[in-house]
Amino acid sequence: MQMLMPEPQIAVERTLALIKPDVVAKEEEIEDIILRSGFLIVQKRKLQLSPEQCSNFYADQYGKMFFPNLTAYMSSGPLVAMVLARHCAISYWKELLGPSNSIKARKTHPDSLRAIYGTDDLRNALHGSHNFSSAEKEIRFMFPEVILEPIPARQGAVDYLNLYVNPTLLAGLTALCKEKPADPM
């Protein structure tokens, strides 16, 4: 019977989300959508980046035609940085964002955040990490004090559950069975 059942997995992934300067006023509305979409906001901060910090953050875009406009736009006012977590967070966040060009997003993904809040290709309202390594790098950039611990998987998760979670559950459930309270909650 055990051979048919898959091993339990702890599959939580983190990604960086940025609410860009021109839509910071819609922060609460956007956060509500994020939470209703199954994400947990692990960390959040409001900050304003200098043009130099923006250049460093978007270093992989350096040399592209839009780079000066991008750094000017991103340093034009405060932004909100958030670490989002959930199963497959990066791909779900990218799906919720929609295409990077807001005009295209309105045609192809009308319910996406960029279609709703974005203006054009540059002012597309929100940012999301492209993959796992960029998510890690971007989270460290926006939250330098954060400790990104690897999430246990396979045997590490089983060991963690056996060492810390199961004994507590066993003790609590055993006490509950002995007491048999009328209202167990």
From TrEMBL:
Organism whose genome encodes this protein: Casuarius casuarius (Southern cassowary)
GO biological-process terms attached to the record: cilium movement; CTP biosynthetic process; GTP biosynthetic process; negative regulation of oxidative stress-induced intrinsic apoptotic signaling pathway; spermatid differentiation; UTP biosynthetic process
Origin: domain of life: Eukaryota
Domain (Nucleoside diphosphate kinase-like) ranges: 12-150
Name recorded for this polypeptide: NDK5 kinase
Family, similarity comment: Belongs to the NDK family.
UniProt entry keywords in alphabetical sequence: Kinase, Transferase
Pfam family for this entry, one: NDK
